[in-house]
Amino acid sequence: MAARLLLVISALALLVLSTSAGGLLGGAIPLGDGAVPAPLSAGAPSAGVVPTGGTTPLSLSPISVSTAPAGLLIDTTNGTAFVESEYGNNLTAISLATGETTAVIQLGDEPYPQALALDPTNWTVWVANSGSGNVSDVSIGGGYVLASVPVGASPDAVLVNPSNKEVYVANGGSSSVSIISPSTAIPTVVSTVPVGPDPDGLAVDTSNHDVFVADAGANNVTVISGKTNAVARTVPVGIEPGGYGAMVYDPATGDIYVVNTASDNVSIIGGTNLTDFASVTVGSGPDAIALDSATGDLFVANRFSDNVTVIVAKNGTVAGSIPVGSQPGLQNGIAINAKAGLVYVANSGSANVSVLSATTLRVVGTVMVQDLPVAVAVDPNGGTVWVANEGSSTVSVFLLAQASFRESGLPNGANWTLSIGTPPVTVTDTVAKGKGLVSLYLANGVFPYSVGLPGGYGFSKVTGSNTPSQHSLTVSGLSVKYKLTFGPIENLTFAESGLPSGALWSVSLQPVGSSGEPAGYNLSTNNASMTFQVVKGAWRWALTTVPSPYVSKSTQGKLHVGTHALTKSLRFKEVVATVIFEEAGLPSGTFWQVNVTGPLSENLSSTGASITFSLPSGTYSFEVWNFTAYNAEPVSGTFTIVAPHHHPYVEAISYLYTGP
User: Fold this and answer.
1) Whether this model's pTM surpasses 0.90
2) Which of 266, 268, 325, 467 holds its CA 20 to 30 A away from the CA of 507?
């Protein structure tokens, strides 16, 4: 095996192992009684993945599996992810490279599989079948069940001891541990060790090869000697210890850490003296624990307080508490990529995965998955993260990219925030030495984001990978970089002259550039001026609403806003055409009147020979009035004008005397 020493298996457990290649036994192991290995059940290609024989990179679409997937095992040597389905009664094998389902291995009638363990020596996977009281020995290369080994009632956890190569099975229903020798012609139980009631968690001390059994019903841990397979000691711990991946061995300190779900603490058992020498208080309802081999810290997911407690292994102190999503860590929903310095926490109640920095101890990303994520695993070679979604019968796969955001334009000591994703992850940075930098981890995709700035500053532009805008950005690959430019906010005022009081006018304002600049603005007012608050830079403006019949000689243009307020003057003038009504036939000095109705309605009268209107463009109707014994011809009509017009529109009116 490679240098990874930690082997922790519990109910619905998760193993992430790097192994060296060994001899492939496959169908060479006889099943006894002339039995023939069950044929491979070829699964249909996974949803969203096109199988191409391993030549196409993995699609990151959710992969459909059988009902209620609850356990994951990553076999990096063979490039396979194994997914157990509680109600599907099978084990699905998926290619790490392509996401193609390569096999669906049936485990028998109602086995209710509960835990997985990798046997790198024999190239097999052991599956604890709680419903059928046995364990299945599955050939990795052949994709079939080599043997079904009867054990005790309700086997809930399984592990392979790297020292003696034997398989240990915790039987939750019969208060025992079955020990299987896989090297015999037919794998058989070679010893049954009585332990406390309801054992459902296993861990192995790889220095002295002792096996630790969490007895949830007795509130203790039974220690089985790896040399004699006899009980060496029983250690009292907290209430309801172990279960679902809640024990871990630390090779650096030689200690065993046991999560006590009902007493909200972690017991530390010394690997040499086999005593519970310390108890560390964590959050409410701790369910899962993981060790960061790079930092030596332990991360405990607390399901009822929605946070993760960080324990410093070398001194047993709490380094911090990190808020995450809803109901984190259910059924071993926590995994660590020590090389990348990231911790992944599956939040079963909020259908997402919180990404934590193992060094800064804060959330640096949130990835939406599907309903009820309960287990998470990392492919250390490909960098992909695998999540079993029990509620949707799928496996989500995502690849994280490091997104770096560097600011410019803010003064030293200024605080700014970045909120990105759904639900948003918010980080705050303080500018030092004229520069500020925030790094987050995001799955490939499109993300909305926003920034918060100190008073008096605004967002100028963003540049970087995949042509970002000020509202969203696209993450593709393993690393993306962005530069966020901020600047002081200044007043840009537009002042008008020439419009009548109360006239409505509007101006639009757009940044100059192709991408990444701030959104445009549009303001309307009935006043003589309007003021925009904008950041320093070039802006393009345009008149969008002008009251008829007024125009401005300047209707659009470009302005550069510097470090001082700027005012742009707009002068309006009225644009009209001349319309003349000329009468003939009335005695001199006779009163007459013309009523005009249209875009502008007006009534004018005269005792002279003509009446003149100044009208904006449009179609009008008119009526001619006179209160004497003279009739007008025409008495009414319509006309259309287009302003401005160099020659007046003339309507001739003839009056005829009709009196006695």
Assistant:
1) no
2) 467
